[in-house]
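Re: [ENG-882] Designed sequences occasionally contain unexpected residues at chain ends

Forwarding the minimal case from QA. Structure tokens:
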């Protein structure tokens, strides 16, 4: 693991070179769609033409980018997000807070957009029930909070349908990986989309590309991992551990993360403690781990303290 304040293609390439000098070149590399990763991995493959390194596009990021291309620029989707945001603010401090939508992130919004689609579908079903308003006051309050949502029903029907199919595809690929059986099952899922659908066309292309990688690697006993979620979930667990500290930053805490991976015997832990001294760890941190923003703040900002006058004999004012 290596950390840095910023990454670019050259830094990624140099970091991977150092890692692979220790472990040997990999058969395949899983990466998301980041340009820094692409610029860092491509030169590595070009420098080793005799050993074919397959590049696996993370299925979650790939699908999120497709959903973004489909919906992000549409007026209906923009209106939908505005209605959701406004409605959430109206019910947040009320007894209807249980109806709050999933958090819509600004960065990586389409990574979790299927959860918002499922919520919208359930809300439409709840608020569309006919009857006396007094018989279901929650539905009436929700309808008043999320004004305009019913008018988007045609868009939301299509949006929810596309997202639900994408979610089925992702669940299959992330939990079982890619092999001949999941390849056939994934094709059956994509058939549910229209033939000219951008999502179906692009995901079918992704599927064909990666089943060929699976066949070229030739290990039919194992599925091809096509998601970086295990790594991201590891960092999620790490955030849960340190969440009590509001300014926790990843510096020397990086040593905690390997402890969350696999099963460690007492003998292995004892060996690690006896073979690595505290001084060695501090030297490694100084050479390899950059200072965090918090450390820089403490070092570079002068202490803001007001001078306190020295205490002395108290002089009482004379009274007349």
């Amino acid at each position: 693991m290596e950390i840095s304040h910023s990454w670019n293609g050259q830094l990624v390439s140099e970091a991977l070179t150092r890692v692979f000098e220790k472990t040997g070149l990999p058969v395949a590399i899983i990466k998301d769609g980041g340009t820094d990763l692409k610029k860092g991995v491509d030169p590595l493959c070009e420098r080793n033409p005799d050993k074919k390194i397959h590049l696996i596009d993370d299925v979650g990021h790939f699908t999120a980018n497709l959903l973004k291309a489909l919906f992000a620029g549409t007026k209906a989707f923009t209106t939908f997000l505005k209605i959701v945001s406004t409605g959430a603010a109206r019910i947040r401090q009320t007894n209807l807070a249980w109806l709050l939508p999933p958090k819509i992130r600004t960065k990586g919004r389409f990574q979790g957009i299927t959860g918002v689609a499922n919520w919208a579908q359930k809300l439409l079903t709840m608020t569309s029930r006919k009857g006396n308003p007094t018989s279901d006051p929650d539905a009436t309050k929700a309808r008043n909070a999320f004004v305009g949502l019913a008018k988007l029903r045609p868009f939301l029907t299509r949006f929810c349908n596309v997202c639900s199919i994408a979610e089925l595809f992702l669940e299959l690929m992330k939990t079982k990986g890619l092999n001949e059986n999941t390849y056939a099952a994934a094709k059956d899922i994509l058939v549910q989309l229209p033939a000219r659908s951008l999502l179906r066309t692009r995901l079918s292309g992704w599927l064909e590309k990666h089943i060929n990688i699976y066949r070229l690697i030739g290990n039919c006993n194992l599925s091809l991992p096509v998601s970086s979620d295990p790594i991201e979930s590891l960092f999620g667990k790490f955030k849960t551990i340190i969440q009590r500290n509001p300014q926790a930053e990843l510096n020397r805490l990086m040593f905690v993360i390997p402890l969350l991976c696999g099963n460690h015997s007492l003998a292995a832990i004892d060996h690690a403690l006896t073979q690595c001294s505290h001084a060695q760890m501090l030297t490694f941190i100084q050479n390899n781990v950059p200072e965090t923003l918090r450390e820089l703040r403490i070092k570079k900002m002068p202490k803001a303290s007001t001078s306190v006058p020295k205490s002395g004999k108290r002089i009482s004012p004379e009274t007349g």
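QA comment: On inspection the terminal residues look reasonable. The chain has a mean pLDDT of 81. Proposing we downgrade this to a documentation issue.
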